[in-house]
Amino acid sequence: MPNARPSAADLLRQKFSRQMSVMYCQEVPDYQKAVDLVKQVNADVAADTAQSLDLEALSEERHGAIRLGKASELSMMRRLFAVLGMYPVGYYDLSVAGIPVHSTAFRPISNDAIAFCPFRIFTSLLRVELIEDADLRDKTNAILAERNVFSDKLVELLEKQEATGSLTEQEEDQFIEELVKTFKWNDQANVSADVYEDLHDAHRLIADVVSFKGPHINHLTPRTLDIDAVQDNMAKVGLNPKAVVEGPPQRAVPILLRQTAFKALEEEVFFQTTDGKLQAGAHTARFGEIEQRGAALTPKGQALYDELLNKTRAIITPKADGSNVDAYIAELHKVFQDFPDDLNELRAQGLIYCHYQHANGNTAPVDKNDAAALESLIQQGAITFSPITYEDFLPVSAAGIFQSNLGNSQNQQSLNDANQADFEKALGAPVNDLHALYATMQDQSLQSL
Ligand code: OOG
Ligand code: NI
Predict the structure, then answer these.
(1) Regions of the chain where pLDDT drops below 50
(2) I need a labelling partner for 291 at 20 to 30 A (CA). Which of 57, 191, 240, 411 fits?
(3) Are 167 and 373 in contact (CB under 8 A)?
């Protein structure tokens, strides 16, 4: 494993991740329960499998999610996250699930940066153009045009960092403090109760993005080694789990990403009124999530995954109320029997990306262009390999996570309206191609043999 010295950006990202976690534990006490449960499950797995795992590092690992309202917020976010060594990777079209956003994940991209602190933020941009009602569309644009979610201090520090390439230690602390504040929950809405209702009727997510003063963090997600144990124990620690774990079924070799969540709580909020007094109301948005990560799949592996997931869902779609969860899981297992579940087979069939290294003592040079020779060295045990962990997200799973916190009665009509070009225009840069990143990682490990 690489262990170069962390860069300034790596250290800032770690600080940011830690402070976000502290803030969210205070804001959503259930999240602390989830973190404690994950720590316990991870310790149990380590004990049961006698693995020497870096539990400390693992228990710090997490991702979060925010939802932005307008292009200028997204491009500013890109510049801010760049200071933390987090770059946009992947394009996710959620309109296919009837959710009027498209998204990317800001994350570290090098082996060393990921190994040091893999913190990621799934970042969605509202697509106002998908609101059907023209009046509501105009109103939404007007409300969003007015709002400024970044403090002057934060922008000033960002501009200094961009101009000079660094900040003093004190400025770095301030930068993180101001950035974390950007994602703080504020129970005072930007709008009246009537406007909130109209937005909510169009889509609950639109109300969540437009009605508030800033892009509050809507969940944080610790990483577990056994998501089924977490799912089974959530109720015991007082959490209300979503009905089904998203992603692939339980397997011997974990692939991609499996995710569950505890449901959002209804919170008291205060709406604006014409006489200046605030009117109490309620809003549901903030929740917690838990993830288990497995091997990154090649395009061939991803195509097989998509095919099998679609096949399963054509037979049975999991209901949000959990009433068919056992049948869904049984079908998922059955259909996924067509996905090899042996590490060597997954590699040999080109379904997963791998890191390759010399086995102890062996330093003989390897002809990387001779696949048969490489294969034979692997068979002899002279070269070993390990799967590259998937660092990204899954659109169908993300839709399931969104929906578990948007209530069950929403109109989930598919819009099927991907528009990566528009997203990149708002972002002010292209997103990185995730397959290119994994392929480069694999290639670099082969080149270093
Ligand atoms: C983001 C949902 C997607 C994930 O882990 O797939 C997500 C949101 O609810 O804003 O975070
Ligand atoms: Ni998430």
Answers:
(1) 1-2, 409-411
(2) 411
(3) no
Cα angle: 300, vertex 306, 309; to 5 degrees: 140
CATH number at residue 417: 3.10.180.80
Ligand 1 proximity of 259 Cβ (cutoff 6 Å)? yes
Q: Ligand 1 centre from 333 Cα, in Å?
A: 24
Tally of domains in the chain: 1
104 in Cβ contact with 90 (< 8 Å): yes
- Each residue of 45-66: pLDDT tens digit? 888 876 667 887 888 889 999 9
Q: Is ligand 1 within 6 A of the CB of residue 196?
A: no
- Residue 421 CA, ligand 2 centroid: distance in Å: 24
113 contacts: CB under 8 Å, gap ≥ 6:
7, 9, 10, 13, 85
Domain holding 180, by residue range, is: 8-240+412-432
Determine the residue of 20, 74, 122, 287 to mutate for testing ligand 1's pocket, defined as the one with the most ligand atoms within 8 A of the Cβ atom: 122
User: Which residues, chain by chain, have CB under 5 Å from ion ligand 2?
Assistant: 65, 221, 289
pTM, entire model: 0.95
